């Protein structure tokens, strides 16, 4: 399953820039403009990491980080703070609130991605990046490769995320709207038939070695990834 990163940032331009960089890097994203939107996004998206702006309207970033650390749901969730403030005292204040790392604005997208990957590596260490294999179909999250008994399969980025999600959640039916939330991110306003388009592409990509049969239509409901016919 592709990892979801929650971006809590009140400036739309920065939010969108970060979002598109993360999406291109294979992460799913959820967006929030303040702490209360972030609370809602945490409930629906269960993010693997939270990017938290220092200066937020209402509850500020540091205060919110403290709250996240106290909450059962987010106690272990890594937090990277985005901050224009570089004074040592303020950085320390943020670390004391429980953040894992910070990135000073203005930041380069490459640096941000490197920090995110490093923090995720530290936090999950092992199994999240382990390859998943079903009936010879193998998806390797670390190298972003899909293969069938050693033969490479060409899968687009959205189809890769979708396949990763399916392989991590086998034998369960998902509606188009659930797939949109989990594969694209709950903030994305795309039509449900977009899901069908990408399902078709995914099946086509899996077809050369017959794995397309794993991606099944459940009539009237949605889709399921299953070994059973
Ligand atoms: Ca801000």
| Global mean pLDDT | 90
In sequence order, what are the helices and strands, one letter per element?
A: EHEHEHEHEHEEEEHEHHEE
Task: For the record, give the distance between the C-alpha atoms at the N and C termini, rounded to a whole number.
Answer: 23 Å
**Which band does the percent of strand residues land in?**
15-25%
Low-confidence blocks of residues: none
Task: Describe what this molecule looks like in 3D.
With 229 residues, this protein is of the alpha/beta class. It has two domains: 123 residues, Rossmann fold; 94 residues, Winged helix-like DNA-binding domain superfamily/Winged helix DNA-binding domain (Arc Repressor Mutant, subunit A, Orthogonal Bundle), CATH 1.10.10. The protein is 41% helix and 21% strand. The protein is built from eight helices and twelve strands. The strands form three sheets. A five-stranded parallel beta sheet has the order 2-1-3-4-5, sandwiched between helices. A four-stranded antiparallel beta sheet has the order 6-7-8-9, covered by helices on one side. The chain has a three-stranded antiparallel beta sheet with strand order 10-12-11. β6 and β7 form a beta hairpin. α6 crosses α7 and α6 crosses α8. The protein is elongated and about 60 Å long. The two termini are 23 Å apart. The structure holds calcium ion (CA).
């Amino acid at each position: 399953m592709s990892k979801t990163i929650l971006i809590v940032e009140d400036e739309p331009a920065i939010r969108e820039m970060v979002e598109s960089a993360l999406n291109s890097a294979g992460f799913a994203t959820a967006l929030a403009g303040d702490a209360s939107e972030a609370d809602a996004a945490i409930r629906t998206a269960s993010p693997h990491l939270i990017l938290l702006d220092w200066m937020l309207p209402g509850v500020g970033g540091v205060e919110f980080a403290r709250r996240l650390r106290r909450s059962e749901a987010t106690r272990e969730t890594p937090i990277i703070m985005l901050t224009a403030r570089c004074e040592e005292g303020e950085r320390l204040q943020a670390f004391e609130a429980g953040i894992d790392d910070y990135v000073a604005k203005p930041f380069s997208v490459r640096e941000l991605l490197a920090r995110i990957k490093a923090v995720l590596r530290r936090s999950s260490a092992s199994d999240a990046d382990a390859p998943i294999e079903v009936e010879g179909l193998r998806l390797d999250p670390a190298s972003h490769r899909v293969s069938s008994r050693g033969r490479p399969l060409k899968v687009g980025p959205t189809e890769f995320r979708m396949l990763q999600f399916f392989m991590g959640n086998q034998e369960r039916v998902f509606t188009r709207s659930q797939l949109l939330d989990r594969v694209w991110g709950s903030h994305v306003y795309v039509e449900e038939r977009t899901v069908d388009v990408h399902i078709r592409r995914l099946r086509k990509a899996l077809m050369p070695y017959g794995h397309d049969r794993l991606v099944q239509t459940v009539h009237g409901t949605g889709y399921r990834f299953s070994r059973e016919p």
